[in-house]
Design a protein that fits this description.
The complex is a heterodimer of chains A (about 120) and B (about 475). Chain A is mainly alpha-helical and about 120 residues long. Chain A is built from 5 helices and no strands. With about 475 residues, chain B is an alpha/beta fold. Chain B has 2 domains: about 220 residues, 3-Layer(bba) Sandwich (FAD/NAD(P)-binding domain), CATH 3.50.50.60; about 190 residues. Chain B has 12 helices and 25 strands. In chain B, strands 10-3-2-14-25 form a 5-stranded parallel sheet. A 4-stranded mixed sheet of chain B has the order 1-13-12-11. Chain B has a 4-stranded antiparallel sheet with strand order 18-19-16-22, sandwiched between helices. In chain B, strand 12 and strand 13 form a beta hairpin. In chain B, helix 1 runs parallel beside helix 6 and helix 5 packs across helix 10. The model of chain B has no long low-confidence stretch (mean pLDDT about 95). Classes of the chains: A mainly alpha (about 120), B alpha/beta (about 475). Chains A and B meet through helix 2, helix 3 and helix 5 of A and helix 8 of B.
Chain lengths: ~120, ~475
């Protein structure tokens, strides 16, 4: 099984990205989705895991600078080859998890009426 | 029923006549035919055994259990291409679409002539294909296919484009329907056959490297499920780990030549189509394909459960996210191209997995744009209300006139390009400039190391490759049996 510790580097950015993209996703569900992302990242092939680990450090640095919301908005749309793959990877994994587990989730992450 | 066993027991060394590494579409038929011919066979598989039906198809649970790295594997490039590989008993046959296309004669002839493959006779391959089709119960769905599949056929037909249902290796119960089939994968067919004939399958065993003495391999150094090391001595070895891990293992073993230098894939782009009725099927894929543009491109349907639809809409999430609530009325479709590009598999010392790269050519990029546009047109012709292409900045396509905007705005670097068909990393043939293995899969420069999987295909075949892989595998192993039993 992949080790959780090696993946925890992605957690802060993944949490912030999901909080922005899916603002109505409740914290418990967001936490579950972030954990799923972390576990999948820990299971990446070795070269990818190394690259993602480096990008995670760089992206995390930005979280401590200024407005977190602005930073996430800008960093998740960077048109830089390879670098832009990082938010894309996190988003892909998280979205796949959220809508597979709770298919009637609203686009903002909120629970569908029928689930309430 | 789990047919695997721990071949090591309390020890750490095994001796066998033939070691087969990998249990997918290459390894399993190889094992069955060799065991039935009386060889002492051990199959080692890095993944685990899962019974058919115990895991929901195309789910994240399946990706975690039966795919390598949870299905998150990438060939680096501009754009990077996501790909998936099975890693379980039965390999990719346990997780793929199950669609069966015979090896095209035009492709076999091109390979035979271009790569100097000896004794590659079309009639022989056809006879083997007949046999495989019986063994795998290749059949059409009984009754009507799913609505998502019918939509693709309807759209193509209304445009006058060639299309048809692709048969699958599925068995259907009497009076069954399109969703009642049971996949005739390797754990249902060739693996039980191999084990009944005396072969042993040991799962949770990863081969680190082959021990080479000059041109001959004598043993495999392995890591077992519990992390313990082991060693397997053999007379012959068949490497059947798929197009990524076969060349990686050969490279780790110090074998050089045309190994891992010519990866070929079918790059694929996607779109989501929304209809007025509920067409989503969350545990199966459409069986129709549009073949009008073969061999350049083909169109088909993808797995489309809500999570995968969210993934398909993700590239343009801000614009498309509102559609996710209509997932029951949506389905994902793909356009796959026959690429001119090539990639590499590079084993890096100290790293467990290889670096994989792929480079699309300019023509590939153009063809992807045109193919995605044509696919959008087919979906509109099928009655789709709207089409949502999977690339950043994509327009919503609501009428044929929008397709021009789609094609103009498309760039491969903005798209989620992916592939599930990987091949050609140890191409077979006698041309030393191009080939990593001889006409029957023996690795050039070695006496007893054979490759028998998708790595041998000289190029991507332009169709679902499993039938082609299996036909060549059976051909090669029969040749091995003739040579070695008679010897």
């Amino acid at each position: 099984m992949p080790s959780r510790s090696s993946a925890s580097r992605v957690t802060p950015y993944a949490d912030a990205l999901l909080a922005r993209d899916l603002p109505a996703l409740d914290p418990q569900r967001r936490g579950e989705a972030v954990e799923f992302v972390a576990i999948r990242v820990a299971d990446l092939p070795a070269p990818m895991k190394l690259a993602v680990g480096i990008l995670a450090v760089v992206f995390d640095l930005g979280l401590s600078l200024g407005s977190r919301r602005t930073y996430i908005s800008v960093s998740s749309r960077l048109p830089i080859p390879f670098v832009s793959e990082y938010p894309r990877l996190i988003r892909s994994l998280a979205f796949a998890y959220v809508w597979e587990k709770w298919p009637d989730t609203r686009p903002d992450g909120g629970r569908a009426q029928v689930e309430a | 029923m789990n047919l695997s066993k721990d071949a090591f027991g309390a020890g750490d060394h095994i001796e066998v006549e033939v070691l087969i590494i990998g249990s997918g579409a290459g390894g399993s038929p190889t094992a069955a035919l060799l065991a039935e011919a009386g060889f002492d066979v051990l199959i080692v598989e890095e993944g685990e055994w899962y019974d058919q039906g115990s895991i929901k198809p195309f789910s994240l649970d399946q990706m975690e259990k039966q795919y390598r790295s949870g299905g998150v594997t990438v060939a680096l490039g501009r754009p990077s291409i996501a790909y998936t590989e099975g890693r379980c008993a039965g390999g990719g046959t346990e997780v793929n679409s199950g669609l069966y296309k015979r090896p095209p004669h035009s492709m076999l002839t091109k390979w035979r002539d271009g790569y100097q493959i000896q004794n590659l006779e079309l009639d022989d391959i056809d006879d083997i294909a007949d046999e495989i089709e019986r063994d795998l119960s290749v059949s059409y769905v009984p009754g009507e296919s799913t609505l998502a599949s019918q939509a693709l056929a309807r759209g193509a037909t209304s445009l006058g484009w060639q299309n048809g249902e692709i048969p699958r290796w599925m068995s259907y119960p009497e009076r069954g329907d399109a969703l009642s089939g049971k996949r005739q994968s390797m754990t249902e067919t060739y693996l039980p056959r191999a084990i009944n004939a005396g072969a042993i399958l040991s799962t949770g065993v990863r081969v680190e490297r082959l021990e080479m003495t000059d041109a001959t391999a004598g043993a495999a150094v392995v890591e077992r499920r519990d992390g313990k090391a082991g060693r397997i001595s053999f007379r012959h070895v068949f490497v059947c780990c798929g197009a990524i891990h076969t060349p990686a293992l050969l490279q780790r073993s110090g074998i050089k030549g045309n190994i891992g230098k010519s990866l070929a894939v079918h790059p694929t782009v996607k779109l989501s189509a929304k209809f007025s009725e509920e067409i989503n099927v969350d545990n199966d894929v459409p069986v129709h394909q549009v073949t009008e543009f073969f061999p350049h491109s083909s169109f088909g349907g993808s797995a489309s459960q809500a999570g995968l639809l969210a993934l398909a809409l993700n590239d343009n999430w801000r614009a498309f996210r509102g559609q996710i609530t209509d997932w029951r009325r949506m389905s994902v479709y793909y356009a796959a191209i026959t690429s001119e590009g090539r990639g590499r598999v590079i084993s890096v010392p100290g790293m467990r997995d290889p670096v994989v790269t792929y480079r699309l050519t300019k023509n590939d990029r153009t063809l992807l744009a045109i193919s995605l546009g044509r696919l959008a047109l087919a979906m509109l012709a099928a009655g789709a209300e709207a089409v949502y292409p999977s690339f950043r900045g994509a327009p919503v396509v609501r009428r044929p006139a929008d397709v021009a905007r789609l094609e103009a705005g498309f760039s491969a670097t903005k798209a989620s390009v992916m592939s599930v068909h990987l091949c050609s990393t140890v191409p077979m043939g006698e041309d030393p400039r191009l080939c990593g293995a001889d006409s029957f899969g023996r690795v050039h420069g070695t006496t007893n190391v054979r490759v028998n999987d998708a790595s041998l295909l000289p190029s991507a075949p332009g169709v679902n490759p499993q039938a082609t892989v299996m036909a060549l595998v059976v051909r090669n192993v029969r040749r091995f049996i003739e040579e070695n039993v008679h010897a």
